[in-house]
Amino acid sequence: MAEYKKLTNGLRIVSEQIPVVKSVAIGFWIRAGVVTESESNNGISHFIEHMLFKGTESRSAREIAEMVDGVGGHINAFTSREYTCYYMKVLDENLSMAVELLADMLFNSRFDPEEIEKEKSVIGEEISMYEDSPEDLAHDLLIENMFRHHPLGYSILGQSDSIESLTRDAMLAYMKNHYRPEDTVISVAGNFDPAYLDELLHRYFYDWKGAPSTEKKTLTTPTLCFGEISRAKDIEQIHLNIGYQGAVLGSSEMFDLLVINNIIGGTMSSRLFQSIREEKGLVYSIYSSMHNYTSNGVFTLYCSMNPGQLTAVRELIDSELEELMKTGFTADEFEKARKQLKGSYLLGMESTSGRMAAMGKSELLLNRIDTPDMILKKINELEQTNAERVMRQYMHPDQKMAVLVGRVS
């Protein structure tokens, strides 16, 4: 059973005790991501994420790594469009070490000027790596162009010029504005003593006082852009990514689209995978996926193929979707997709990391904890006729963005 507490400084703590395991996962979820950036400082959230691993006043970067490796633990972080997460997974006996280390990184990171300059080169290489990965590039270009006039469309990594212009003072000012207790959720799942966890979190976070933010901005709901763009790359395959209107995070339509995703391209038994790869042999990779945000969403179809197969593949995709729009799903495939959704969700919840992430993201972005029972209830209540209505409403053939990467004319 998930527990919720809120400290007087606004910091929210969500936790779930799982006594049958020997591990504990803890994550710091902070409302700082691409949507809190500007064009001039684009990439700063991701850069700060890197810098928190570069040493504190009492520990070097190597000592941080050795401390975690020494107990067989795992530490990492990631930046998304709407938040940044720092997390650890350790044996339950090492919980105090994990809390203290994450607090040290959050409050006492040095932001050494020499390390900042070195990291600019590292992130520059990361940007080049994604540019050299046509699949990643096709996804990034799709989101960038569908949210063309909105911060959701900014690059998570940033642009080369915005990264090069970042300074230590700019990063510290950004942290002061966005790394605040009222914009943070600490999520914990695993084997721990609740009273001891409370004592640890009060020790390190009760006196955390966030400065009043001077950069809070109200984001408008993004209007999606549609059309077609291409990026020329001298590579062997053409990479096609098609985006449609998606669902808002946590909405009832999101659950309908999750089932639709399984039917269309989310699994190996899906319509597009079976038709275009297994039966026709025209592609190696083909799948659909979802990107859900608090203000909007995108449903995507991705595939890669020999350039000579592009026309045939696009015609087959259009034909499959047109047939779905006309006839809807069969009762059997809808029920199978629902069972797939339930199974994959429950398997993900078997790990302490999965439970920690589900609670932390839900509380940070939706201000609620969607328990497994609540999620399963929503899945069980899905109706085929309503899912078909959502599909026809969201996946309109004239409202899509297509991105092509490869040898395009």
From TrEMBL:
Which GO terms of the molecular function aspect are on file?
metal ion binding; metalloendopeptidase activity
Its GO biological process terms?
A: proteolysis
Q: Which family does it belong to?
A: Belongs to the peptidase M16 family.
Name its species.
Anoxynatronum buryatiense
Q: What is this protein called?
A: Predicted Zn-dependent peptidase
Residue ranges of the Peptidase M16 N-terminal domain?
Answer: 12-158
- Which InterPro entries does its entry note? Metalloenz_LuxS/M16, MPP/UQCRC_Complex, Pept_M16_N, Pept_M16_Zn_BS, Peptidase_M16_C
* One protein family per Pfam: Peptidase_M16_C
Tell me where the transmembrane regions lie. none
Q: Domain of life of the organism in this record?
A: Bacteria
| Gene3D superfamilies linked to this entry | Metalloenzyme, LuxS/M16 peptidase-like (3.30.830.10)
Peptidase M16 C-terminal domain residues? 165-341
